[in-house]
Amino acid sequence: MDDKQNNNIRPSNQLRSENTIRPTKIRIVNPTPKTSQALLNQAHRNSKWQEKFNLLFFIVLGCLFFLLLDVFNIWQKIIPGVYTWKSFTLMRIVFLFLVFVLPSIIYILIKPQFASTFNLTLNPLTAILSILIGFPFAYIMALLNLTLAILLERIGILENIIYFGKQLSLFPSSNAIYLIVYLTIICLIPAILTEFALRGIVLEELLLQKKQNRAILFCAAITGLLTFQLQEFIPYFGLGMLVSMLYLYHQSAITTMLCHLTFNFTYHYLIIKTSVLNLNLTNSSLLFIEEMIPTIIKGLIATTLFVPLFVILSQTKQINPLLDSEKIIERHSKKKQPGNKLFNISFIALIILFIIYVII
């Protein structure tokens, strides 16, 4: 009888001991951004006509309308006389409204899920690094742009090398109010509107349809094309690459806005007004590499600042995009939705508008 009781007790004790064993916690890292996954779930619930629309389509329509205003010389009719800071400011405000504000409003009314997934949270360390990284990167891109312009001038494609500060020269330098207006419409507002539209909406939608590396390239190209300036395409293409990667790493549009803001501030103001950083060359007939040595040294200094900052910024996430690039770059390797033909048509139309605007 005792043996039977002992046999009955042992299994129950063993069962209790097994139940008290804590299971090993396995941490599974999901490389797919949360916002992209939320948009993917919502996309399956959209109607077919909603899925066809994309923000780039409305952006191109805004660009086309702005181009028509320029062709019919509307600005001269509103503000007659020579081209001044008033004309430039008016044109800039209308451009930002037609190309970014109005298309974003229309698109969000059609697909409100993009507004609900817009992330405004940001780690303070990431914010500081995002601000700092824009300065050296803008200088690197400006120097690269200048070098390419000199090369194109040598082979006869460009008539003159790039000159920085044409827009700033329109504003009177005697009053600080003019400087505030200039920095607001050139640096601050475009950084906010561009990042909200291109990274917060366009890039997120591209990630549902294309591989991640292609999505980054498309988004960067759109960033460059929307400058409608041949000599600003390469710097802003590079900026588009950088902020697209920052957005994927940190999933916050505030990160990209801060980086874009300091990039604009450096490219459109610091390298013009700061004598140590000034890249404008008074002699357009440089023949010897020795004459370019001071400029090259400035670029090397900017590079030595940019690379460590970018590495530190990438380290603020547990998945390091530099050390684990294969996982990061290919995490969207499989398409989740079929390609959007309207996007491809809109992208080609934007290229055509860019060429037309440069020619005229």
From the spread of the alpha carbons, the general shape counts as globular
Please indicate the percent range of residues in DSSP E strands (runs of 2 or more).
under 5%
Mean pLDDT: 81
Distance between the amino and carboxyl termini: 105 Å
Uncertain regions: pLDDT < 50 for 5+ in a row? 23-32, 319-335
Residue share in helix: 55-70%
Radius of gyration: 26 Å
Largest sheet: none
Write up this protein:
The chain has 360 residues and is mainly alpha-helical. It has one domain. The protein is 69% helix and 0% strand. It contains 15 helices and no strands. The longest helix is centred in the middle third of the chain and has 31 residues, at 124-154. The radius of gyration is 26 Å and the shape is globular.
Please give the structural blueprint.
Blueprint: H1 2-20, H2 34-43, H3 48-52, H4 55-71, H5 74-78, H6 85-110, H7 113-116, H8 124-154, H9 176-206, H10 212-225, H11 233-250, H12 253-273, H13 293-315, H14 325-329, H15 341-359
Helix pairs in contact: 4-6, 4-15, 6-9, 8-11, 8-12, 8-13, 9-10, 9-12, 10-11, 11-12
Entry keywords:
360 residues, mainly alpha, 15 helices, globular
Summarize the structure.
This protein is mainly α.
